[in-house]
Amino acid sequence: MQQIPHTYQTLYSELAQRSLDAAFSTEFNIGGRFVTAEVKGRRYWYLDLPSPDGGKTRRYVGPVDDPEITRRVENFKDLKADIKERRKLVSTLVREAYLPRPERKTGDIVQALAEAGFFRLRGVLVGTVAYQCYPAVLGVRLPSTSMVTGDADFAQFHSISTAVDDKMPPVLDTLRQVDPTFREIPHQDDRRFTTQYTSRSGYRVEFLTPNTGSADYEGHPTTMPALGGASAQPLRFLDFLIFEPIRAVLLHGAGVPVTVPSPERYAIHKLIIASRRRTDSDGTAKSRKDKMQAATIMEAMIEQRQSEDLADAFMEAYGRGAAWKEAIRKTLSQIDHGTRETVLPALARAIRKLERDPSEFHLEDVAAAPKP
């Protein structure tokens, strides 16, 4: 894989910092007052704003123990918007570093939801649009063939949606700012709820949430108090994917600060779901794409000396039960032979470094393989 020159990695880091600063300064009214409050044993920042009736409204900001959020709270009055300069940085990274940028509608949709507060409310961008962020995050160029998509997926833990005590404006109104033809798709199980929205051109936006309960919840929409009237489709394995996400920047406009899954969790999650897709033509195509994205990220992380992060996520998923283990093993057996020869020995070596035995994870045959 081709490395992204250090100069451009530094530019990306600068863009990430400035984009998040700008989002913070424009999203919160300068007339408000930041306060902290404890919720379930953890302290959070909130912004109190005066309301017309003489009272106040409270908006969720983020955890106090997040150093980036706390720094921005402390420096709030000094933050300035610099859209023109950030646009130049985005253009440089796309034209000169050949980093991917999303299709315009996709970028506009993510930006609209970001400005509506989705990421502030601890939502996570998932799916192929999130994958488009990983070349800059990992510092390598990834194949563009696995970046094509006609939809955007967004996820949030239900526990967070109920705990933040804040909400976005109506999702449909936000999407119609981008394309007035967007409409709700009533959920097939209960038409009172909506987890998906579609435009006249067929572009889809879907909201997801982890299903960590019984199988009875499968297929039933989950109400999400923070998501501006949208419900979410509960999915197995999603809790693993969106746990401890990372910050990134979507290279659209002046840079859109987003939250995406960590690359190691994204790769392992793709190993799991690739073998569980439907066997129709659409499911087969999605499974092929899942395998390609998983393999590409794993190889990139190994090349970038991040094997232990990958192994840590691998071991966590492998230890979650028989269904997880079976799905991972099945997909690993189906990926390209050359990729397996790179990934499996590297995983075994990293597991040993983490003071575990590769045989616990059915990697005993490759544990002693020489380093390529």
List the helices and strands and how they pair.
Elements: H1 6-27, E1 33-39, E2 42-50, E3 56-63, H2 67-74, H3 83-95, H4 104-115, E4 124-126, H5 128-131, H6 134-138, E5 151-155, H7 158-163, H8 171-178, E6 183-186, E7 194-198, E8 204-210, E9 222-223, E10 231-235, H9 238-242, E11 246-250, E12 256-260, H10 263-274, H11 281-303, H12 307-318, H13 322-334, H14 337-353
Parallel strand pairs: 5-8, 8-10
Antiparallel strand pairs: 1-2, 2-3, 4-5, 6-7, 7-8, 9-10, 11-12
Helix pairs in contact: 1-3, 4-8, 10-11, 10-12, 10-13, 11-14, 12-14
Sum up the structure in keywords:
14 helices; seven-stranded mixed sheet; three-stranded antiparallel sheet; globular; alpha+beta; 2 domains; 372 residues
Structural class: alpha+beta
Order of helices and strands: HEEEHHHEHHEHHEEEEEHEEHHHHH
Estimate the strand proportion.
15-25%
| Biggest sheet statistics | 7 strands, mixed
Rg calc: 21 Å
Helix content: 40-55%
Shape: globular
How many individual helices? 14
Low-confidence stretches: 367-372
Structural account:
There is one protein chain. This protein is α+β, with helices and mostly antiparallel strands. It folds into 2 domains: 6-260, no CATH class; 263-361. The protein is 43% helix and 17% strand. The chain is built from 14 helices and 12 strands. It has helices spanning 6-27, 67-74, 83-95, 104-115, 128-131, 134-138, 158-163, 171-178, 238-242, 263-274, 281-303, 307-318, 322-334, 337-353, and strands spanning 33-39, 42-50, 56-63, 124-126, 151-155, 183-186, 194-198, 204-210, 222-223, 231-235, 246-250, 256-260. The strands form 3 sheets. Strands 4, 5, 6, 7, 8, 9 and 10 form a 7-stranded mixed sheet that branches. Helix 1 packs antiparallel against helix 3 and helix 4 runs antiparallel to helix 8 (171-178). The chain is globular, with a radius of gyration of 21 Å. The model is unreliable at 367-372 (pLDDT under 50).
